[in-house]
Each structure stands twice: as C-alpha cells, then as structure tokens.
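[User]
Um, tokens okay?
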Amino acid sequence: MKSLHESTARKFYDSFNHRDYKTLVDFCDPKCVITSMATGEQYKGVDGAKKWFLSWSNLSSDMKADVEVIAASDNYVVIEGNAHGINDGQVTLPTGTMPATKKKLHVQWVDIIEFKDNKIIGVRSYYDMVRMLNQLGVTQLPQHYKPMAHGAAH
C-alpha cells in the first residue's frame, strides 16, 4: 500500500512533467528548502521550489522526469529518477551562460524528500553534474568514467 507521502512525491514530479508549477508549489511548505547537492545551491520557499524546477525546464523545454520510489517512511521518501530531454535553452554555469547545444540530456538522480504536516519541507537532490556537462559538450569525462545504462538502476 502506498503511503500518502509516496503518492504526494509522485504527484510533485507529475506536476513538473506537466509544467503545472502552481500545483507543484502547493505541495511545498512555505519554508521548504531544495538543495542541489551537486552545486551546493539552495532554493528556499515556494518561490525557490518553482525556480529550481524552472531551471530544469528552461534547460530543456521537453524535459521529463521518470520517477521510481525506492523507499518511503513516515517523514521521508527517496526517489530514483531519470530526467531526459533536448537542451534547447540557455545553459547557466558558475562561469556564466552559454547558448543551447541542442544535445540530448539524460540525467540520473536521487532525491531525498522530507515531509512535515503533509507538506514537503526539504529536498536534497543528488545528480552527476560532470556527466551532465559532458552530455552538453562542456567538459570531457575522465577515461575512468564508465558509461551508465539508461534507466533506473535496480
């Protein structure tokens, strides 16, 4: 039986896939914090949550997030996901911006979502920034990096 939080987490990402940002932020507590563990950036409050998801859809207007719940407890849901799309938007880097590359993106990630009073109060998002930049043609992967299979690892 699915928990309420597991169901909410799925709806949260479905809202992103449909670009329904109003519904997406309705799942968030006003003081929620989304942390990109790849960059250390934090996105605070419902405006921050919207900004986080807009950054992904601006990178790729057809970006979709396929999610698989891998663990759920009273206050946490762990999601393993695959985001995919074509980079058709400006790429924002710490050093500045660059135009769209029109290259395919496939980003595997894990989000740890924390709930309180049936609202999302925190998300810690883990993804491989180096691999993503390589797909965009910004960097070259070191030789020891192994290609990852597309699809969730099980």
Summary: The beta strands are 28-36, 42-44, 64-72, 76-86, 91-93, 96-98, 104-116, 119-127. The first strand starts at residue 28 and ends at 36.
